[in-house]
Amino acid sequence: IIVDINDYDYKTLDVIDDDFVIILDHIEDPHNFGAIIRTAESMGIKNIIIPKDRSVVVNETVMKTSAGALNHVNIIRVTNLVNAIDYLKKEGFFIYGAEADGVNYKSVDYSDRRCLVMGSEGKGISPIVRKNCDEIVSLPMKGHVNSLNVSVATAIFIYEMGD
Questions:
Q1: Beta bridge partners of 138
Q2: Whole-structure pTM value
């Protein structure tokens, strides 16, 4: 059996009409991407922004891992994440970047219109994207491991920042 599937139909920034957006800064693992899509959809988040270069694309693994959630979330591919951040700021969004050296995520009063930026599995948020975030937030670590899988960390932030 041969199935011919069209390429995924990426959206543009002008589809954003809700109050919570996620930016994934060079996520490379399709399993992480699919899990993030699934978590986002479970909280009613409709838009995830990814860069065109050095980032996972929507593929069979992403589709399978998202368990159908991909059908209800817009994946927006942009050439430049900083330009996307500038666009969101003009639309009234406050940009929260997630990094280990930020303020405790529980101590933040989140804006009505918010964007969560999550960095890549190995390098975190790129310096230029981080510079354009309004605030850096972090998850406190108490054990010997000083980081979480990006999809797990994203889920924690989504539920804390969500309505």
A1: 104
A2: 0.91
Stated as kind and residue range, the H or E segment containing 119 is strand 114-119
Size of the chain in residues = 163
Residue 66 CB-density burial (10 A; 0-12 exposed, 13-18 middle, 19+ buried): buried
Question: In whole angstroms, what is the distance from residue 16 CA to residue 75 CA?
Answer: 11
Beta bridge partners of residue 95, listed in sequence order? 115
User: In this structure, are residues 49 and 23 in contact, taking their beta carbons and an 8 Å threshold?
Assistant: yes
Nearest to 30 by CA among 71, 59, 1: 59
Nearest to 136 by CA among 88, 91, 104: 104
Amino acid at 98: A
Beta strand 47-51 with 20-25: parallel, antiparallel or unpaired?
A: parallel
pLDDT tens string, the chain, 163 residues long: the values are: 655 555 778 899 988 889 999 999 998 899 999 999 999 999 999 999 999 888 888 877 877 878 878 888 999 999 999 999 999 999 999 999 999 889 999 999 988 899 999 988 778 899 999 999 999 999 888 877 777 789 999 999 999 887 6
| Closest listed residue to residue 117, CA positions, set 153, 73, 79 | 153
